[in-house]
Amino acid sequence: MTTSLPKKLIIATRESRLAMWQAQHVQARLQSLYPDCVIELLGMTTRGDQILDRTLSKVGGKGLFVKELETAMLDGRADMAVHSLKDMPMDVPEGLQLTAVLEREDPRDAFVSNDFAALNQLPAGAVVGTSSLRRQAALMAQFPHLNIKPLRGNLDTRLRKLDQGEYAAIILAAAGLKRLGLPQRIRSYIEPEESLPSAGQGAMAIEIADNNPELAAWLAPLNDLTTAQAVHAERAVSKAFGGSCQIPLAAHAVIDGAQMRLRAFIALPDGTKIVRAEASGPSSQGAELSAQVVKQLQQQDAAAILAQCLAETAQA
Ligand SMILES: NCc1[nH]cc(CCC(=O)O)c1CC(=O)O
To answer: What are the Porphobilinogen deaminase N-terminal domain coordinates in residue numbering (predicted)?
Structure first.
């Protein structure tokens, strides 16, 4: 390394408690690696945080949570942004790159309720909150008697809506609850067999300008190779189908030793059709495994499901 680290680094972040926790985590990790550098947070409100009355799939999806942060980097107001990888569009805009992917937290979905212990305890007609089409499809396929209702807002808002009695239960990512020190809100974990996680769930990524290889090298120690391999394979599957949250799509890789097992599904939002695919092999061959999974999904007419999903969102 020939260049020295800048004296100051600014991390752009959303201002939700989870986003702040994640940015502070990166700040602390960098501070201990580089004690002489001043590392500051730049909190920002994104369109995704402002629009709370419509489901994400209807207002434009993932990009809503990241655009303001990306503009800050392109304008030179921030050096990097910390994101939940799950919220990152599959195509990173021109001029930017995802650099480090941090070690993954629990990738599972969590069942959260004040009155019930698990999904299979819910009575017919019970109102379950989630705005994720993926969670909705997985739930409706197994528990068609449940009444799935939209649930938006940051984690605290969603928990408050549960506590106010609007829902019998809600489904959240376990990772967010654990990071915020709320693991006691998790009544049970929903295993991948029941609700396969979405690409990148539980992982955080750092985004920087793509003309800054020095900064990328300084951030490289934060990259967790196993997580990076898993999430790259997952995101490749998602990307092959447009990578939006307007379709119920799951892609989840588990790495054990040097072996990766990659699973995915694509579904109709009401869960009446779910096609699944799976591939296993060396974890260094993630691109090949995701190509196999994509091919298996295509052979089961994923294109027709995709077309039907997009037609439904266009109508809604
Ligand atoms: N879509 C919002 C979002 N983005 C990241 C997380 C949780 C943390 C993670 O998956 O890394 C959540 C909340 C949720 O899905 O319950």
So the answer is: 9-215
Q: Which CATH architecture has domain 236-315?
A: 2-Layer Sandwich (3.30)
pLDDT at 54: 63
Confidence of residue 263 (pLDDT cuts 50, 70, 90): very high
CA dist., res. 102 & res. 261, Å (int): 20
**Which DSSP letter does residue 265 get?**
E
- The pTM for the full model equals 0.93
ipTM reported for the complex, 2 dp: 0.95
Contact (Cβ atoms closer than 8 angstroms) between residue 133 and residue 246: yes
The CATH class for the domain spanning 8-102+203-223 reads: alpha beta
Q: Is the pLDDT of residue 98 over 80?
A: yes
What is the distance of C-alpha 15 from the center of its chain? 17
Q: Tell me the Ramachandran region of residue 85: left when phi exceeds 0, alpha when psi lies from -120 to 50, beta otherwise.
A: alpha
Q: Is 86's C-beta closer than 6 angstroms to any atom of ligand 1?
A: yes
Instruction: Give the C-alpha distances (Å, rounded to integers) separating 5 from 23, 35, 38, 161.
Output: 19, 11, 10, 45
Q: Is 224 a catalytic residue?
A: no
Return d(Cα 119, Cα 104) in angstroms, integer. 25
Question: Architecture of 109-190 per CATH?
Answer: 3-Layer(aba) Sandwich (3.40)
Taking CA atoms only, the protein residue closest to ligand 1 atom 5 is: 84
